[in-house]
């Protein structure tokens, strides 16, 4: 593929490329690497068709400066430029579109720290479906405001003492809503898998794809797409150290849960993988790595200040893995899903206080 001319943004050194229950124990990478999951990938293809004209085909960026710093050729799939500011519209729209007319008439409910809630709310507006979102009271204000702005009813709870799942379950029983889960649904996974599909179709051959992991919808969908389109490509999931349930589950073979966490990557605070996402991740993902809070923030700072790409902490996690050399990868072609950009810029001075003035060249 051809690289376009240098971006007009000053100093933005990048180019735009055209374009718990314990689940069954599985050894990692036990899937057929030559074929991938054909049935699930067909669902990804179908989701991609539904999303035409709905989800943006977000740009893939490259940076000479970043490539030289890391010693690899890197391709950044910028889902921070997606509708609602994150990849979540892909899965939410696909899942709600497929509901029966009766279910759409009764309305849907979900629980989310923000990005999935926004995506579900926007989908409800597009499809004329009533949406209720259960959100923690301390969710980022920018995400809660946007969710309400798209027309959803927001119900808040204390994430230290309450259960979002129980609140949603009670409201399903009371009103007959359909639950649209944030990640543990084949329709959600198929929609999220379209991001990696677009990345691979834009770039061509890749040696690695790095994907952030919360509940595992984006990671499992990305792994399905990569396994089918690029069987030899290694798929790496990345988590915050403070929310490493998926990494521990992946390495132990048993679904594990964490308690409440205050990782700065609020979109990845999910306490555990799902009964659908866990086996898919064990089957198709090659490895999981974790990054520290400081590593997430410093990577985010680099993206903001040197590449002029505004991402939220969760959106910086995938790049943080190679930016801070968590894997011995040199001279390779690697793709990264920058999952979102919904951050309150008023918090930036406090967030970046530890890295401002540091050597970020």
Describe the structure.
- With 361 residues, the chain is of the alpha/beta class.
- It folds into 2 domains: 3-86 and 185-351, 3-Layer(aba) Sandwich (Rossmann fold), CATH 3.40.50.1100; 89-179, Rossmann fold (3-Layer(aba) Sandwich), CATH 3.40.50.
- It contains 14 helices and 12 strands.
- α1 crosses α9, α3 packs across α8 (186-203) and α9 packs parallel to α11 (277-284).
- The protein starts with a strand and ends in a 10-residue tail after the last helix.
SSE layout:
Blueprint: E1 3-6, E2 15-17, H1 38-51, E3 60-62, H2 64-70, E4 73-78, H3 89-97, H4 101-106, E5 108-111, H5 115-127, E6 131-136, H6 141-149, E7 153-157, H7 164-175, E8 178-179, H8 186-203, E9 208-212, H9 217-229, E10 234-240, H10 245-252, H11 277-284, E11 287-291, H12 293-305, H13 313-323, E12 333-338, H14 348-351
Parallel strand pairs: 4-12, 5-6, 5-8, 6-7, 9-10, 9-12, 10-11
Antiparallel strand pairs: 1-2, 2-3, 3-4
